[in-house]
Amino acid sequence: MTAPTRVLLADDHALVRRGVRLILDNEPDLTVVAEAGDGAEAVEAARTHAPDLAILDIAMPRLTGLQAARELARRQPDLRILMLTMYDNEQYFFEALAAGASGYVLKSVADRDLVEACRAAMRGEPFLYPGTVNTLIRSYLDRLRDGADLPAKPITDREEEILKLVAEGHTSKQIADLLYISVKTVERHRANLFQKLALRDRLELTRYAIRVGLIEP
């Protein structure tokens, strides 16, 4: 049996931490090893306890959850991060992804979504709460209504095709077969994508693909 995922839980409300801890500790594959009452404590606790996963509230004293996420992503790049928040807010959602979070869970449905989000994060998969889809659609329709231009693409059409397929989980061999190109060509395009977009791994590439609308959340 594999060891349970070690979780750091940060929220400035002790009652919230207690409730979330009950949810997590009830799962055999998850265990809370440290708690923090603000973002700065979370960064220090991560250094001390070396968790596998950090769950951060967005609105916290000293360092916000977003600021703590950026610092943790810089210091401990292998640490998975989830944001736990009461805010169903597009700006916070995109800032969370940009800060290095693997997912965004609303407190109002944490009892339903949080465990699934933790497991997805540890698999290296992004987790988006269901309302995200509606938020993204509203934003897109607003841009269309206002006549806003979409930004110029930083990648070629072929790179975009490969980006989408990689984000959907296809292997280089499968992509090569789908696009009738060699595996070596696929690998070259993948390397160009990571360099052009300043991405480190497939999770970041998937976040980018969602952000620009290539795949559905």
From TrEMBL:
Residues 6-122 form the Response regulatory domain. It comes from the Bacteria. SUPFAM superfamilies: C-terminal effector domain of the bipartite response regulators, CheY-like. Residues 148-213 form the HTH luxR-type domain. InterPro entries: CheY-like_superfamily, NreC/VraR/RcsB-like_REC, Sig_transdc_resp-reg_C-effctor, Sig_transdc_resp-reg_receiver, Tscrpt_reg_LuxR_C, WalR-like. Transmembrane segments: none annotated. The modification 4-aspartylphosphate is found at D57. Pfam families: GerE (PF00196), Response_reg (PF00072). Keywords: DNA-binding, Phosphoprotein, Transcription, Transcription regulation. The keyword Phosphoprotein applies. This is Response regulator transcription factor. It comes from Streptomyces xantholiticus. The lineage of its organism: Bacteria, Bacillati, Actinomycetota, Actinomycetes, Kitasatosporales.
